[in-house]
Amino acid sequence: MIDLGKYAFDVWLAYAVSLGLVGGLVVQTVLRARAVKRRLGEAEE
Q: pTM score, two decimals?
């Protein structure tokens, strides 16, 4: 493993924040796609 020295906390925090943001975008995209699919299904009826 890479020795990050005194910046280890900052680097891990940056990774955690980045992964959290990307995960949030994925969840938002999936939820939005489901909602759009449901609305399209209702409109077709």
A: 0.73
